[in-house]
Amino acid sequence: MTRPAPETITIVTTPEDHRIARLTAAAIGLSLIDAAIPLPLPGVKPGLANIVTLIVLARYGWGTAAWVSLLRVFAGGLVLGQFLSPGFFMSLSGALASLCVLGFAERLPQRWFGPVSWSTLAAFAHIGGQLALARLWLIPHNGLFYLVPLFAAAALAFGIINGLIAARLLAELPAAEPEVSNV
What we know:
Blueprint lengths: L14 H22 L12 H12 L1 H18 L6 H20 L9 H24 L9 H25 L11
Helix pairs in contact: 1-2, 1-3, 2-3, 2-6, 3-4, 4-5, 5-6
């Protein structure tokens, strides 16, 4: 008696799916570089993957930026072996806080607000989300807030640097990616 052949499952993808996958892969690569950079204080990282998020926000809008950012956090957690660890949840809380702020910041007048201000606001939100989670879950002591000036200075510096890089790349990259379908 022979068994019937199993049915083939076909997943149909769109050019938008391919774009999100490519951009997420770039963000994951930058996250891996971030993880490899030794820094003197735990939790202080350049946030290089946020450059991709800023470019995606400017080119494709908040929804696509949210997909790329959240997929990067989940995939980065898996690749780095930190999925569902405290570090993963710290990263997720920072990403969610920065996405909320970017959703608001995107609507500010573009004459005065762009990638540098978005990046700086997102960096402050990111560290704020992480500190809130750390205070509520990991370090239930107000002494944690003595580190706020140090984290705020790092957020300001890296926010400006990443925003300047994103602004430069936005000025130099082609306006739209070609639509390629491999369906």
